Amino acid sequence: MVSQKNLKLSMLGSFTLLLLVWVVITFTSPSVRSSASGLATPIGTPPAPAGTPAKTDARYLGSETCRSCHEDQFNEIAKTSHGRLGDRPSWKDKVVGCESCHGPGKEHVEAGGDKTKIVNPRLLDPKAASETCLACHAGKEAHNNFRRGDHWRNNVGCNDCHSAHGPNYPKNQPGSITFIGEASPQRPNLATRAMLKNNEPQLCISCHSEVKSQFSKPFRHRVLEGLMNCSDCHNPHGGFEQKQTKLAVGADQSCVKCHAQMQGPFVFEHAPLRIEGCAACHTPHGSSNPKMLKRSSVRQLCLECHTEILDVQLDGNIPTGPHNQANIRTQNCTICHVAIHGSNTHRAFFR
User: Fold this and answer.
1) What percent of the chain has pLDDT above 70?
2) Distance between CA atoms of 220 and 214, rounded to whole angstroms?
3) Which contacts (CB < 8 Å, 24+ apart) does range 107-110 have?
């Protein structure tokens, strides 16, 4: 039988060997060599995908050739990130511009502009068109789950929300239902980011119309006013959580990143918060009830689980006890149980 000491030594040796192999592979890779030579990709610059065609491919003529016929489109895309890829070191000697999405243009030009000789993503099936985008964008954390998301399954493609040539709409003006608060002049990039076809809240509710009315209720998250975006809580490009909520460690992480005081950990935890989450008591988009609660009265929520408190003793024909629901002073549970999301001092969630 191998002794415990020898087992530990063998595990340590295996770990050291794996670490050595990782160091050798990492520091001999082309990306690290280019970094050492001063050609490192700037932070935030997407690297060129491995399958990106090289400029030396004779089928690709370059965007300047496209410009001779499609000057308006060329000028539009030149203002966007897509039009500036050629200036980035990681895309050097790679095909960029029009042909990176529309495919090689040699046959299209030789045929006198025959539309059947070039790829038009707008005429493709949404999934096929999205594959063109994912060829470059799939490596990003926000996009790598798109193929398992609800949008993909429902045939909603990238072009339904984004404009590859850049957005084409007038300057944002406050005054509509989307911009009814002071957030509009404070966040002028609300509609223009990520090359969206429209500002994000209106773009989302154009399909998800069931939530629009919730954002108009008295107690709500300020999405239509521009203080929040749908993507602050949801990942439109897919995810592992229900409703594509952000973060892969539980749906409630989308809530506690703003409402951090409710997160804990607590010595005495409220079970529904850990098992069912915030949505057990609150409606996430908007409600007619204070605190965005599902019920108009706090005790209605509590009594759905805590039915045992109604078993009170009788003094004659008069109910008694601290939870006597006939007494208005004891009908509001949170008068006493103030730390209802969790407590570090008392198991009954007293202060």
Assistant:
1) 76
2) 7
3) 107/59, 109/61, 109/65
Cβ neighbours of residue 34 closer than 8 Å, sequence gap 6 or more: 40, 89
Q: What is the DSSP letter of 80?
A: S
Give the span between the Cα atoms of 26 and 40, in whole angstroms: 15
CB 287 within 8 A of CB 217: yes
CA-CA distance, 161 to 82, in Å (whole number)? 16
Whole-model pTM: value is 0.69
Backbone angles phi, psi at 166, to 5 degrees: 105, 155
The rounded distance, in Å, linking the Cα atoms of 97 and 85 is 8
Q: What is the DSSP string of 142-155?
A: TTTTGGGSHHHHTT
Which of these, 68, 63, 133, 138, lies nearest to 104 by C-alpha position? 63
Six token digits for residue 92: 């050097």
Distance between CA atoms of residues 299 and 293, nearest Å: 11
Mean pLDDT lowest among 150-164, 201-215, 276-290, 321-335: 321-335
- In angstroms, the Cα distances linking 84 to 76, 233, 287 are 12, 30, 45
H-run or E-run covering 31: helix 30-36
Answer positive or negative: Cα dihedral of 143, 146, 151, 156: positive
